[in-house]
Write a structure and sequence with these properties.
- This protein is α+β, with helices and mostly antiparallel strands.
- The chain has 16 helices and 13 strands.
- The chain has a five-stranded mixed sheet with strand order 11-8-7-12-13. A two-stranded antiparallel ribbon has the order 1-4. Strands 2-3 form a two-stranded antiparallel sheet.
- Strand 5 and strand 6 form a beta hairpin.
- The radius of gyration is 30 Å and the shape is elongated.
């Protein structure tokens, strides 16, 4: 005898099923047949979506009944007259729903009670959908996010088009920005004896007329104990960190404020010793300098990654390469004067075609002479000496999302909310703060 199945939604109270209708609804039913391959084993993708649709419709129908007001918000009267029905859309991760409301009119003052999902709940989308749209829009292009949602939902939905995803990212990014402004008022973290901060920037193609690009800044703050090395000293992994980013042209106010908050979240206190690694740019050091009033000390180090790359990018004839290697060796051991002496000789003996790059290296070393350390000793002592982690932060926060396709162009205002989201997600703060961000975004739209 063939078997059949039936999936039922029941509404009950105190263990007792309420009236059979409408509190018991058949969501899905069919025959249980022998599967001949993986295509017929279990419910199909479409059937699963339909089941979720039916279950949500049944649950929402019950929930909407108890959303009706108990008294008039204007006069307090508890008696209402029926004033017809109204419908409103509600969107979840996989499904769209049409909600029917009983319109209620106060018998005393005539005020009509609110009867739309976006009015009653603050948004016509579920919190889960807002979260998913935010995360997809932060990680992928908006069109890719639309296509991913279409694939998982099994169909194209207007609520998931790329413009809606873009708007969600901008709204949630703005909410995260606002949240940062008050975060430092309630940060209670175990004090850190030492913190490491790496600051760097990345150039973004811009939509601004007359300009090719602008620089977005990033920073990563972490405790030394969070740095796990693979033994080479150049490829490391962080178990915990806080990242910040900004694209605003605001005199670095947002970048500095968010960096201080990130440091506080990592345990910054008046007894903390900070080691800062930067590429030598003045705007990076300004962000580091802003931490001075909050820490016991700040040690500034020109990171070896950028310094060695500047040397490696200079192409010289074979007969001059040993002299350049000598410059690099002296710098690796923190011998700045010796390196500059060798560099001066090299400049004087090099062909004119190579002088410009060598002179630029000379200026770079002179400008950052007080921040060049004995990198060899720091490596032997197991201390950080390179900001390759900042490079990876630029890659993860900026390059992967904003520079993957050469045709992409951004405005500072359009990019900044996206960077706030990517920073909070990379910092692993998103999993504890996404609900707060959604509520904050909803409150601003009301």
């Amino acid at each position: 005898m063939a078997k059949n199945y039936r999936i039922v939604f029941e509404c009950y109270k105190d263990g007792e099923i309420l009236e059979i209708a409408p509190s018991q609804t058949i969501l899905s039913e069919g025959k249980i047949e022998k599967s001949v391959d993986i295509f017929t084993f279990g419910l199909t993708h479409k059937s699963q979506i339909n089941l979720i649709q039916s279950a949500q419709d049944a649950l929402l129908k019950e929930q909407i009944e108890i959303l009706e007001p108990e008294n008039c918000v204007h006069c307090g009267n508890k008696k209402f007259n029926n004033n017809g029905r109204s419908s409103s859309n509600y969107y979840d991760i996989f499904t769209d729903h049409r909600i029917t409301f009983h319109r209620k009119k106060c018998s005393k003052c005539g005020c009509e009670a609110r009867s739309a999902t976006h009015i009653l709940l603050g948004d016509s989308r579920s919190a889960a959908l807002i979260k998913v749209q935010t995360e997809l829009g932060a990680k992928y292009s908006y069109r890719d996010g639309e296509q991913l949602l279409e694939m998982f939902c099994g169909e194209s939905r207007q609520i998931n088009n790329h413009d809606r995803i873009k708007n969600t990212v901008e709204e949630m990014g703005a909410a995260v920005e606002d949240m940062h402004k008050t975060e430092n008022e309630m940060i209670a973290i175990e004090p850190a004896k030492e913190l490491i901060i790496s600051v760097d920037g990345g150039h973004i193609n811009t939509t601004e007329e007359g300009k090719r690009s602008f620089e977005a800044m990033t920073a990563v703050v972490y405790r030394p104990s969070a740095l796990i090395s693979n033994g080479s000293g150049t490829r490391n992994h962080l178990t915990s960190k806080h990242c910040v980013a900004s694209a605003l042209n605001d005199g670095q106010r947002q970048m500095i404020s968010n960096t201080i908050i990130a440091a506080l979240k990592e345990g910054l206190c008046p007894q903390t010793a900070i080691t800062a690694l930067c590429d030598g740019a003045e705007n990076c050091w300004r962000i580091v300098d802003a931490l001075l009033p909050f820490a016991a000390s700040v040690t500034c180090i020109l990171d070896w990654f950028h310094l060695s790359m500047k040397i490696s990018n200079i192409a010289l004839p074979n007969n001059l390469k040993p002299q350049l290697e000598s410059v690099k060796w002296h710098l690796w051991h923190g011998q700045v004067n010796e390196a500059l002496n060798d560099l001066e000789i090299l400049i004087n003996t090099s062909p004119r075609a190579h002088k410009l790059r060598l002179e630029k290296l000379q200026i770079y070393v002179k400008n950052n002479a007080d921040k060049i350390v004995n990198y060899d000793k720091r490596q032997n002592d197991g201390l950080v000496f390179t900001s390759n982690l900042a490079e990876s932060t630029v890659e993860s926060l900026i390059n992967q999302r904003c520079k993957g396709q050469q045709h992409m162009r951004w405005s500072r205002e359009g990019l900044n909310p996206l960077l706030q989201l990517r920073a909070i997600i990379t910092s692993n703060d998103w999993k504890t703060s996404w609900k707060t961000a959604i509520l904050h975004s909803i409150s601003k739209s009301l």
